[in-house]
Amino acid sequence: MRITSTSCICPVLVCLCFVQRCYGTAHHSSIKVTRNQTKHTEGETEVHHRPKRGWVWNQFFVLEEHMGPDPQYVGKLHSNSDKGDGSVKYILTGEGAGTIFIIDDTTGDIHSTKSLDREQKTHYVLHAQAIDRRTNKPLEPESEFIIKVQDINDNAPKFTDGPYIVTVPEMSDMGTSVLQVTATDADDPTYGNSARVVYSILQGQPYFSVDPKTGVIRTALHNMDREAREHYSVVIQAKDMAGQVGGLSGSTTVNITLTDVNDNPPRFPQKHYQLYVPESAQVGSAVGKIKANDADTGSNADMTYSITNGDGIGVFSISTDKDTREGILSLKKPLNYEKKKSYTLNIEGANTHLDFRFSHLGPFKDATMLKVIVGDVDEPPLFSMPSYVMEVYENAKIGTIVGTVLAQDPDSANSLVRYFINHSTEEERFFNIDANTGTIKTSKVLDREETPWYNITVTASENDNPDLLSHVSVGIRVLDVNDNPPELAREYDIVVCENSKPGQVIHTITATDKDDFANGPRFHFFLDERLPMNPNFTLKDNEAAAPSPSGFVHAREMGACGPAMQKPSCPPLV
């Protein structure tokens, strides 16, 4: 290349570059710069020397990952001051100078001594200078240039976030987006296809697909059923070189789980069940369980149970155990085998959380029939009354009949019943009972004034099973007879004044009776005629004073009132 005089370019350094592309082809570029020349009309050429010199350089390229035995040729520096006589010395400084890049100071040839990695460093900035070898004076000003590391496809795509765990609802429409995966390639995206990635699916078809450009994974089938298959392992590959042969690839695993929706109604395994419940079961207790199966999980499988019909709808109730999703059958009323031996219940189980998108798969409930068999249990004797009250007169002869209790075996066997009193208390020792008839009799003479009421306990047992016992309370009222005479309420000391008038009441006498009111008051007061009469006093029966019976003592004549009269001798009163 000849530079004309009109170009006004200074004498410069010639740079020869050697570039090897990733395809293995070597390219050489050389720049020859000569001194500016002017052509005369007579055909002679005159050379004009200019005192100022400058660098002209190209950008150098070095191929990364060079593994050859010899240093890799990068390019050549050459000054137009260089006559080839070795008088010009080339100096290289800057990044990697002397360690990575070396220069032949005579020829200007640059070599790379190490294998370079573009992904670690993309380019190096260096400085070139040409000096006179004899004087060490610069022939050209120092100039900066770049050696760029040329990319090769030495990095496979990588999924930095994998493996992935993701969920998608079952029964989703085909094409539903599941996840977008992204692979990165460390190669140069601006050069060739080394970093151009294409996605493909290696494992997971025909259930899922992946967009080759975006990496978006989608469902590829309609109505994928979790109950048929829940987990999928999908392998996605990312390949550079736009997927061409020879491109590098990386892969990742996407673990996809189908989440549940309520697309399955509850189902009882059987249409008829039978349950045995003993008649001795306590009211309020759980007597059985029943369960409908639901293939769904979580809240989609929640259900409630109810009794919709049957002759036992008033005898039994059903509730739902939220943890086990079982129906708990409980007893509302007592069972009696002798009255009713079986019941029929219609039981329904229904989902509580419905998804109307799948209502066409319903109804989301199921029903079954439960027959409850009442079991006969050997029950203790049953008394005819919950308690008894009896009466007997006091002073009755020992062996007097007080009353009779009655107990029967409620079972169909109708076993004979025996009666007894434990006699564990003092009260119970006053009575005996006939073991066969249940007749209660006195065993001691009763005194109403000492104990007016007795509480005893009668026990009944079956002959066939003496361990089955029943107890009943018996209250016995002791009736009064007039077996106690009246008594003066207290001992009387009467004082009378000497100036008392005849007929004046000087004292009132009262009496008591231990017997009941009917056999006690009214009382009749009179002076005992068998004793000498005192003419100074009279006794009057106060018949109108009931129910506080009393008699009045009257003075008949004047008497002395003094110490001798404080305790007068009075005739006894009856």
Q: Could you describe the 3D structure shown?
A:
With 574 residues, this protein is mostly beta strands. Among the domains are: 59-150, Sandwich (Immunoglobulin-like), CATH 2.60.40; 158-259, Immunoglobulin-like, CATH 2.60.40; 272-375, Sandwich (Immunoglobulin-like), CATH 2.60.40.60; 382-479, Sandwich (Immunoglobulin-like). It contains no helices and 38 strands. It has strands at residues 13-20, 26-29, 37-39, 45-47, 60-63, 72-79, 88-94, 101-103, 109-112, 123-132, 143-150, 164-169, 177-180, 198-203, 208-210, 216-219, 231-239, 249-259, 272-278, 286-290, 303-309, 316-321, 326-331, 342-351, 365-375, 382-383, 387-393, 401-404, 407-408, 417-421, 431-433, 439-442, 453-462, 469-479, 487-488, 505-512, 537-542, 550-555. Strands 2-1-6-9-8 form a five-stranded antiparallel β-sheet, with no helix packed on it. A four-stranded mixed β-sheet has the order 5-11-10-7, with no helix packed on it. The chain is elongated.
Name its key features.
Immunoglobulin-like; five-stranded antiparallel sheet; disordered N terminus; single chain; four-stranded mixed sheet; mainly beta
